[in-house]
Structures are given as structure tokens and as C-alpha cells.
Design a protein that fits this description.
By secondary structure, this protein is an alpha/beta fold. The chain has eight helices and 18 strands. Strand 13 and strand 14 form a beta hairpin. The longest helix has 22 residues. The chain binds flavin-adenine dinucleotide (FAD). Flavin-adenine dinucleotide (FAD) binds next to helix 2, strand 2, strand 12, strand 16 and helix 8.
């Protein structure tokens, strides 16, 4: 039962944001920064954000060579430029907002490992570099001839493409710092509360929880893979991502971020450990789930590739394995949409939301304030 004080002061806001991942936090920050007198409430279902933002691998990247080539099969060249610009601007916004030291941003560069059947991609490096030059102001992708340097399986790795602009972060530090910033700005954050639905009445949106109802002038939906529960007709599917981390490894040669099989597999160093994720492509339909349960099919493949491809001559122990849930659509463009008069959505960030999230938050808040 609510008190008079609660009813009088705690239930009504100018803006409510649903979802406390990188997009929800960035949107809340932008709403407050662009409109300091506004009251903002952020509602998050989990104790921690429970989707992708605290579960990812911490790559600060904007796409490998074969990922860009794959994007070009579904999008026009100018749409691919826009997508890369979104990722690049988002990363810059995140780094400017929080500071490189706060999020452990390190720039060791990124590598894509190519198999025999992918060598044709090398013939298109110049074309992709030309395409991205207006966006990134540099020639990004270069063939790295020293493919034996990291000790990978030579039967599977036939070429390596280097991208000096790729970095890595500590995702836990990024999210903690974003939460602190959001609170400092005066956003009221409530965790452990799931929004069950909403309804728009004249000039107001009612937001329903199990036992209570908040109201606001405008609502932002930042629930990524879980959005269909609230807005069923948005075009997106969940995709589970699995990541493991090894215990520290003596003499680890891996330093930087690495991708193979069009980005379906990705690994990096974190200090002297390896963080390795992927395998969704083994069963795309089976992994299209919001369930966090890890299947042996994926776990066994990750351990096997670590043993045979990535660390073939090095002993290692897996320290921890976890899953997170992403959202995918027919291409890699996120959804930024006005769902109804006073309800807006910023969702479907795919596998590069660390990069896109801050920019999408900015765009979503700007749309709500326009
Ligand atoms: C395993 C894995 C590895 C990844 N690696 C990388 C990487 O290295 N680099 C990169 O750029 N990206 C990576 N990503 C993608 C990136 O993490 C996501 O794109 C990004 O975090 C999405 O942010 P978001 O805020 O949109 O969604 P989320 O972080 O999923 O946030 C949505 C939030 O909404 C909450 N929510 C849902 N429904 C409700 C409701 N009804 N009521 C209240 N709250 C609700 C959820 O609990 C969740 O916290 C990875 C993702 C995964 C899963």
C-alpha cells in the first residue's frame, strides 16, 4: 500500500527509461544533460543490468574486414558507412564521457584471422579502406604478414589482417561508471523491477509493474533483446552469446583483440588471461533465446578451439564461463523509433553495442526532447 508521500512525490516523472544497459543509462544521462530540470526514472529488471551490457567481451571495435564485406551484402555502401560512423562516434562518446583510465581502455589493435577459404577477402582490402576513409580518416585494414607471431594453428590461420584502431575495455568498470554518472546527475534508478507493460492516455504514459504503476510524459524503451515483451511488433530476435575467461597464463603471447569466421568468434587478452566468446553460428535458431542456459555444443566448441587453434601449445585452465543475450535483425542497423506519440525505442544493438550504445542513447534522448 502506498503512502501519501510516495504517491505525491515518487510516482510521476517527466521521463521514464526502461532497461539499465548501456543504452538505457546513456539515454538517461543525455535526457538530464540536455534538460537538467527534468525528472527521470530508470527501471531495471535485474539487480545488475541483465542482458548484454555487463556480459559482453569488452571489444571496442567497429567491424573486421569480413564483417564489413558481409554488411555490404545486405546494405548499400553509404548505409555501411553510416553504420561504421555510428560505431565510431559511439565509442568516442563513451571514451569522452567516462575517460580511458576509468574503463581500462587499451589500444593494442585488432586482428582478423583468415582461413584458406576466406583469402579472397584480401583482394578487397583496398576497396573497403577507400569506402571507410571518409568516415575514419585513415586506411584501416592492413595485411599483417607475421602470422606465426602469436602461435596460432598454422593449418587454420592462413592470413591475418591488422586494424590499429581497435581497442578493449573492462565492461564492468564501464557499467559501474555509467551508473554512477547517471545517479550523480539526479536520475532515480530502481533495480529489481520488471516493467509488465504500458499504456498511453491523453498526454501521459502509464508504466505498469507487478504491484504499482508509474507515469510519465515520455517513455524510452531500452530493453534490447527483451523488447518483444513490451512492443511485440518490432523486428528483432534474441541471440545468446557465450564467453569464457581462462586463468592467468604464463608467457601469454596474445595481446589485442582477435576475430575469426566473420566475427562469430572473438578473443582478446585481459592482462595475462584470454577472454574468448562465440559459437552462436553452430545453431543460430537454437541460440535465438532469452534463456541464459549454456549448451554443451557451444561450450565444447569454445574449449576445443582454445586448445587447437588459439593456444595449441600452451596449457590453460578455464576460470569462468557465462552467457548474455543480444538482439539481432535482418541487418546490423539498430532500431531508433517513435513507437507511439510519447513512447520511443532504442534497441537491437547486435554484437557491437559497446560501440553503438552511447550514440544511440544520444539520438534517442534528442528524439524525445525534440
Ligand atoms: C556474450 C556477449 C559478448 C558481446 N561482446 C561485445 C563486444 O565485445 N563489443 C561490443 O561492442 N558489444 C558486444 N556485445 C554486445 C553488447 O554488449 C550489446 O549490444 C549492448 O550491451 C546492448 O546494450 P543495451 O543497453 O541495448 O541492452 P542490454 O544491456 O541487454 O540492456 C537491456 C536491459 O533491459 C532490462 N530489461 C529487459 N526487459 C525489462 C523490463 N520489462 N523491465 C525492466 N527492465 C528490463 C534487462 O534486464 C537489461 O539490463 C556482446 C554481447 C554479448 C551477450
Amino acid at each position: 500500500m502506498l503512502s501519501f508521500w510516495e504517491r505525491d512525490e515518487l510516482l510521476e516523472y517527466d521521463f521514464i527509461v526502461v532497461g539499465g544497459g548501456i543504452v538505457g543509462l546513456s539515454t538517461s544521462i543525455e535526457l538530464k544533460e540536455q534538460n537538467p530540470s527534468a525528472s527521470v526514472l530508470l527501471l531495471e529488471a535485474g539487480m545488475f543490468p541483465t542482458g548484454a551490457s555487463t556480459k559482453n567481451a569488452g571489444f571496442a571495435c567497429f567491424g573486421s574486414l569480413t564483417e564489413i564485406l558481409s554488411d555490404l551484402e545486405k546494405l548499400s555502401p553509404s548505409e555501411v558507412q553510416d553504420l561504421v560512423a555510428l560505431r565510431s562516434e559511439g565509442l568516442q562518446r563513451l571514451r569522452n564521457r567516462l575517460g580511458d583510465e576509468t574503463i581500462d581502455y587499451l589500444n593494442f589493435g585488432g586482428y582478423e584471422l583468415l582461413s584458406e577459404s576466406q583469402l579472397g577477402a584480401l583482394d578487397r582490402i583496398d576497396e573497403v579502406n577507400e569506402l571507410l576513409k571518409p568516415v575514419l580518416n585513415h586506411k584501416v585494414y592492413q595485411i599483417d604478414p607475421d602470422i606465426r607471431r602469436f602461435g596460432f594453428d598454422e593449418a587454420r590461420v592462413k592470413a591475418m589482417v591488422f586494424n590499429p584502431f581497435e581497442g578493449q575495455i573492462h565492461s564492468g568498470k564501464m557499467m559501474k561508471s555509467l551508473q554512477q554518472k547517471t545517479s550523480q546527475l539526479g536520475v532515480n534508478i530502481i533495480t529489481g523491477v520488471k516493467v509488465e507493460g504500458f499504456e498511453e492516455t491523453s498526454g501521459q504514459v502509464n508504466v505498469h509493474l507487478e504491484y504499482t504503476k508509474f507515469s510519465c510524459a515520455k517513455l524510452a524503451i531500452c530493453t534490447n533483446a527483451f523488447t518483444k515483451d513490451l512492443v511485440p511488433d518490432l523486428e528483432l530476435n534474441p541471440g545468446r552469446g557465450v564467453v569464457l575467461v581462462t586463468k592467468p597464463i604464463d608467457g601469454l603471447r596474445i595481446k589485442g583483440t582477435y576475430h575469426y569466421e566473420e566475427g562469430y568468434y572473438y578473443f582478446r587478452n585481459y592482462q595475462d588471461r584470454v577472454i574468448f566468446g562465440g559459437g552462436r553460428n553452430l545453431d543460430i535458431a537454437g541460440e535465438a533465446s532469452t534463456d541464459f542456459q549454456i549448451r554443451d555444443l557451444i561450450k565444447d566448441k569454445l574449449v576445443s578451439d582454445l586448445e587447437t587453434l588459439i593456444l595449441p601449445n600452451q596449457a590453460f585452465d578455464v576460470d569462468h564461463i557465462w552467457a548474455g543475450i543480444m538482439a539481432f535483425g535482418p541487418n546490423k542497423q539498430p532500431i531508433l523509433k517513435q513507437v507511439s506519440n510519447n513512447v520511443f525505442a532504442g534497441v537491437r544493438l547486435g554484437g557491437m553495442g559497446v560501440a553503438i550504445g552511447s550514440k544511440l542513447g544520444y539520438d534517442l534522448a534528442s528524439k524525445m526532447l525534440a
